[in-house]
Amino acid sequence: MSLFRRGMTAACVLLAGVAAASAEDIVSYEVVDGTIPKSLTGVPGDPAAGRKAVIDRRLGNCVACHTATELSDQQFHGEVGPPLDGVADRWDEATLRMIIVNPKMVYEGTVMPAFYRNDGFHRVAPKFAGKTIMTAQQVEDVVAYLMTLKD
Ligand code: HEC
């Protein structure tokens, strides 16, 4: 093998390693009666991190469409979606997780984006991994935050 070819092989191996490290595998989840009862990660969500993801324009950007009294320090609230006040009284955790992962399972034809959608049962090929808007843990953080919004 020429030195050049050996060099190329080493470079490719290096690139593959970098790609695998940066792309999170999309975790599979089970939908039961339009809900996702089990945590995507098994790690409890952090409500404070969830609040940040809800506000972050590159992540949830939930405030583009939703208001909440608790978020009134934030500017540019949209009113496309219902106010999030009291969502924890209206929905249980399993349904809130479904709404964040893929709201079309709860509201057919909704404009709300799916933040963590895959086909629900199979592991996704590596080239599609990491293509969700949020990571699995960010979904859990947002759900934990929503669970604090009680009337
Ligand atoms: C493009 C606008 C849009 C964005 C962005 C959006 N939503 Fe929604 N959301 C909606 C709409 C519209 C509904 C009402 C469902 C329907 O009728 O389509 C909804 C419904 C909901 C509900 C159920 C509310 C209830 O009272 O029943 C929750 C919870 C929710 N969204 C949370 C979120 C969170 C958290 C985010 C960010 C991670 C988010 N949404 C981002 C538009 C949006």
From TrEMBL:
Domain of life: Bacteria
Alphabetical list of Gene3D superfamilies matching this protein: Cytochrome c-like domain (1.10.760.10)
Residues of the signal peptide: 1-23
Keywords: Heme, Iron, Metal-binding, Signal
One example GO MF annotation: electron transfer activity
Keyword flag Iron-sulfur: no
Residue intervals of the Cytochrome c domain: 45-150
Protein's name according to its UniProt entry: Monoheme cytochrome SoxX (Sulfur oxidation)
Organism: Stappia indica
Lineage: Bacteria, Pseudomonadati, Pseudomonadota, Alphaproteobacteria, Hyphomicrobiales
